[in-house]
Q: What sequence folds into this?
């Protein structure tokens, strides 16, 4: 019989009394003890982990979106493309996660729904920061965070910054394109579609070789919104599949509210210009 394999024979480190281990580096003692179900329902663990992992991915999204905005504002579009591509891949991960949650049936969910109280994904600070960063801005959405001054302040700070799309439009203007000043100022409302902005994108799309950096940036934005729309659609269908048309735990209309969100356009001119080409 062969001797049991010992990784130490090939140099693997096996003693960590005075060294940083994998678990130490990732703070797994904190992460893996952060799941605290409030009921005995088996599916509550799925529900908690689904939302906790989504929040971790959203934290990375915010990190990448911030870096992309800074790079584009400085005129460095090439490194920003990598970050925006990564954000789209993160959205792909978030979309795939709905497939796991959809294994929970309505009967499963009702066994612990009451334990959630008034808590709801509607109250996710990071999701709201992402929406504000992408341009879907509504100051009313700060109110669910008024009880936490730090969270409310983070949202106010985001509203005072140009959105990702505004940063891109500002970069286009710096290259000599016709972009109205009104489209560039930080706003507390969604971007208003502009014929001049659409005409600018039409010029870019009709001659991509001449305007390659802007053309590539535009397509990265379309990719991002494409995945974001899929995420919203998957959210709607998952909620309808699990709770039907009941109101959400946070008091929203549930499916009716989510369907309204499907109508939101983050970068409207990039979609409307396709009709003109």
A:
């Amino acid at each position: 019989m062969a001797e049991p394999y010992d990784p130490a024979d090939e140099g693997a480190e096996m003693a960590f009394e005075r060294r940083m281990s994998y678990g130490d580096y990732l703070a797994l003692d904190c992460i893996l003890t952060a799941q605290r179900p409030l009921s005995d329902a088996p599916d509550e663990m799925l529900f908690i982990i689904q939302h906790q992992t989504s929040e971790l991915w959203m934290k990375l999204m915010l990190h990448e979106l911030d870096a992309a905005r800074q790079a584009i504002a400085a005129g460095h579009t090439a490194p920003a493309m990598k970050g925006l591509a990564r954000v789209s891949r993160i959205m792909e991960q978030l979309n795939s996660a709905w497939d796991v949650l959809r294994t929970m049936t309505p009967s499963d969910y009702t066994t612990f729904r009451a334990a959630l109280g008034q808590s709801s994904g509607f109250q996710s600070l990071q999701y709201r920061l992402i929406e504000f960063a992408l341009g879907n801005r509504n100051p009313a959405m700060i109110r669910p965070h008024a009880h936490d001054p730090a969270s409310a302040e983070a949202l106010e700070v985001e509203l005072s910054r140009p959105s990702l799309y505004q940063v891109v439009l500002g970069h286009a203007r710096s290259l000599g394109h016709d972009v109205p000043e009104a489209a560039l100022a930080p706003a507390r409302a969604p971007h208003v579609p502009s014929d001049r902005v659409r005409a600018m994108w039409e010029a870019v799309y009709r001659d991509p070789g001449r305007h390659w950096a802007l053309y590539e940036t535009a397509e990265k934005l379309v990719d991002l919104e494409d995945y974001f729309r899929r995420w919203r659609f998957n959210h709607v269908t998952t909620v309808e599949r699990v709770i039907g048309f009941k109101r959400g735990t946070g008091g929203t209309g549930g499916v009716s509210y989510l369907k309204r969100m499907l109508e939101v356009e983050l970068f409207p001119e990039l979609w409307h210009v396709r009709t003109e080409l």
In short: DSSP finds twelve helices and no strands in the chain. The first helix runs from residue 22 to 26. The chain has a mean pLDDT of 92.
